[in-house]
Structure formats: structure tokens, C-alpha cells
Amino acid sequence: MLGSNDTALNKLVDHLGALFRPVLVLDGSDDAWTETNTSFDGPLTVETWVRLTPHGRKIGNADGVLGAPGQLDINFFDGKLRVYAFPPLGDVVVAKKPITPDLWTHVAAVRNAEGRWSLYIDGEPDSVGIKAAPAPLKNLRIGWSTAKGGTQGSFAEYRLWNRARTAEEIRRDFDRGLATPKPDSLVFYNPGGGDWGTLQKGAHLAKTSDLPPILTADEATALDAKFAKYRALAISPATLPAAGRSRRCAWPAISSTARAAASGPNISGAGAMGQEALLRRLITPNASMESAYHIFRVNLRDGGIREGFLVREDQDAVVCACPAPKISASRAATSSTPSSCAAA
Asked: Which of 160, 169, 188, 248 shows the smallest number of beta carbons within 10 Å?
């Protein structure tokens, strides 16, 4: 019989305990939010991992990140993160990329000293607002939105800062827990199971093994070392062309039809990326993978399984694009849930 002092048993228990950790779960009702009692008169940053799981509807402006009646509503209108500041301002910034259902995604919204908002998706800049919304914000609520109904999904690694974090800071820290002691500017921090404020009826904590891809301290240290190595190589004079000469890369012409049919991500903007963003895409491709290239698995009523890139899902069909010809699974499919894809 294994006793309490058995080393192997204790390791197994610790391992299983690490697999199941708490997150904040919101059930989609009008009361699916928490009261934080946090207020801001100037710059602020809100960032969190969110996994939206809408049932019987699309992701929309009922799904919120942070807000307060008549003051602020950061939600996912038409599936895209946006900051709504109520009339007369209305929308002050809207993201370009939609969020994918049932997939943990890191989102951040930053208000600078002038009151202008910027949005980030999975650590990378997405959109910058042109209208300032500097009004004081009082008693903000996590997950609240002004639309009827409420957020359906989960939150983890939720952070509120009383300053505007930089793009470099958001990119560096979005996929790792924060070290102690916590900075003074971090006014609210919950990795998952701490104090979420006053939970309303539609909010509760639940333990799950479906967690965002947060790096451990050892993993973060190893990744920082790798970044430092390749960053040094990138700026080393030995890697630059000789003075007075330029290097050009010739790419074969690709027709618009062929490009549209390609199953790989669009890298046409790689030349405009900053060094940090390009390095992250090369060193940690899973962390920077666009949602459009996550593999979805469709379970059919006859027991069959189809996998591919999600093109469209509505009441009539689930349409996926595969490396092979496009397939269409009828609404007989019982579910469509994303699964991870690792490229060799």
C-alpha cells in the first residue's frame, strides 16, 4: 500500500494537481460578471486570457472583458475586440482580427495619457484608436457588457494596471505568469483562482485542465535566453551586408487565385514587422499562430471525423478547408471543436 510518504505518489499528486487549475467561468446570463471596485482617472491597461464558448449564438457585444454602465464597454462586437465609450463617442477602437470560439486568446486594451486606446491580440499590436476617451472610470466590472445576456466563457491571468503598458511589455509577458513581488502599478491581478471581487449569480470558479499556454518560470528563463541569443545574432555586424551593397530576395510570382487557395499563413507583411515580432514568430510559432490557422475537428453523426481550417459555420453547415480538397460537413455534425496543430 502506498503511504503519504511515498515519493512517487506525492509527485503524481502534485502533477495531477497542476493539470487542473481554477479559472473564472461566466455562464452567459445578465449577471455573468464580477465587481472589482477598481477605478481609473488616467492611463490604464487591461489584459487577460479569455476563452469564449458561446452556445446557440455567435460571439458578440454581449461578451465583455471590462466595463461599467454609461462609462466603458470593452466587448467583442461581431467577434472583434472593441472599446465602446458610450455616446457621443461610441466606438473608439475596433480590432481587425476576429476572436476564435473555444480557443484561449490573449487580449489587451491600453489607454494612454491622452485617452487614446490601443488593442493587442496574442501579444501583438492590432489597432490604434484616433478618438480620445479620457473620462474617469469608476467601479469597473470584469466580464460586464451593456448588451442583453452576458459573457459565455472563461478568464485567466487577468491584469489591471494603472498605467499604459508598452507594446514590448505586453509582448514579453502575455504568455507567462508574473513574478513576485508584484509591481505597484498592477492594481488587480488574478491568475485564475484568487479573489475576483464580488461574484454575481452568473459567475463562479471552476477547475479545468483546459488552460491558457502560460510558461513556467523555467520555460520563461529558457525562452528569454533563446531570444537573447538570436537577437544578438540579428544585430551582429557579421550578419549585415557589406557597406554600399544591398541584398535582395526574389520570390516567384503567385497568382491571386493560387494565393487564396494556399493553406499557409500570409507572410506578405513580414518585412514590416519589428525585430521582436519576427523573432517571436520564428522561435515560438505556436504562440503567434493566427486563429485562422488552428485546426478544427468535426465529429459526424456516422462516427466519422474531419479536420481542417474553419471557413464557415452556420445553422446549415460546417465548412472546412483542408490541404486536400475543401470538405463540407452537413449540420449532422454533432460538434466542431478546435484541436492543437503542431508543424514539424
From this structure: 248
